[in-house]
Amino acid sequence: GRLPSPECVQTLIEETHEKFRTVNEGANADYIPALAGAPTELFGICLTETSGVVHEVGDTNTPFSIQSVSKPFVFALICQAIGEDAAREKLGANSTGLPFNSVLAIERSKDGTTNPMVNAGAIAAASLAPGGSAEEKWAFLRDGLSRFAGRTLELDLTVYESEMATNQRNQGIASLLGSYQKMYWDPAEATDIYTRQCSLNVTARDLSIMAATLANGGVNPVTGESVVDAIHCQHVLAVMVTAGLYENSGDWLYATGLPGKSGVSGGMITVAPGKGGLATFSSPLDEAGNSVRGQLTARHLSERLGLNLFASE
Ligand code: GLN
C-alpha cells in the first residue's frame, strides 16, 4: 500500500503530537554533562515522504546533537567507500543484545566485531573513513552526513567538549578493538572523530530527510542528490532492524515492524522503505537510552499508517 494523502498524514501526525505531548516518563541522559539540562518539554515530529513532501509538527527546528542516530548514516558511507563485504567483515553485523556502550560485547563476540549501531562498531566504522589524516576522515564524514541532510551540518562545540572530557569508556573500547585488529586508525584519534560525528547538530526535520534518504534508495528526496547506492541502504536497514535500539531492538521490532535508530540526546528515526522517513525529538529516555515519546510516536504511526514490514497486506 501507499501512504494516505498528504492532508491525512499531516492530520495524523498533529493528532499524534497532541496525544503524546504530555507523556512525562523517562529522563535525560546525564553521563554526557551537556545533555543533562536539555528542556524535556520539547517535542517534534517530522515525516518526509520519498516524494519529497515534508510534514512537521512541534519542535522540528530545534537543534540537538545527533549522537547515535549518526551511526546508520556513517555505516552507509563506509559501505559505499570500502564495499559491503569488507564493511561486514571489519565491523560485524550481529546484534549484541547488550547496552550501546558495552565492553563485554567485544569480549563475547567471536572475533572482536560487534555491529555499527553500537559504540564499538561505530568507533571502528569512523576509523575506516577514507583519508590520510584525522582531519581528512572527519571532513569525509561531516560532508557525507551533510549530504544525507541536504545542508551543511555544524558541530555543537559544548557537547563535543563535554563528551571528550568524559569519554574514557569509548577510548577504552577503541583500544580494546585494537587488540583484536578491529581498529583501523589510531584509537584516540578514531574516538575523537566519532565524538565529533556524534556532536553534529541536527533538527528533527534534518533527521527525517536523512531517514527518507535511506527509505529512498540513497537518493535524498528533497535535494535529489544520490548520497549512497540503494544496495547499501538495504544493508544498513537490516542492521538497524536487529540492533538500532540496542538491547531493546526485539521489543521495538515487535511493536513497529520497522528499522529504527535512537540516540542519547533524544533523537530517533524510523524508516519505512519506499515510503518515507519518520523522525522525532524528545529528550527523556527509557533505561536502554531510547526516547520515550519517540517510541510511542513510531509505534502509533506504524499502526495507523500500516507501515509494518511483516504485514501481509
Ligand atoms: N556519543 C554517545 C556515546 O558514545 C552516543 C551514544 C548514543 O547516542 N547512544 O556514548
From TrEMBL:
Q: Which GO terms describe its molecular function?
A: glutaminase activity
Annotated substrate binding sites: 68, 119, 163, 170, 194, 246, 264
Reactions the enzyme catalyzes: L-glutamine + H2O = L-glutamate + NH4(+)
Q: Name one GO biological process term.
A: L-glutamine catabolic process
Supply the EC number(s): 3.5.1.2
The protein's UniProt keywords, in alphabetical order, are: Acetylation, Hydrolase
The enzyme's main class, written as a single word, is hydrolase
The reply on keyword Hydrolase is yes
According to the record's subunit comment, the protein's assembly and interactions are:
Homotetramer.
Q: Which PANTHER family match?
A: GLUTAMINASE (PTHR12544), GLUTAMINASE 1 (PTHR12544:SF48)
Give the UniProt family note.
Answer: Belongs to the glutaminase family.
| Name this polypeptide is given | Glutaminase
State the organism named in the record: Terrimicrobium sacchariphilum
The encoding gene: glsA
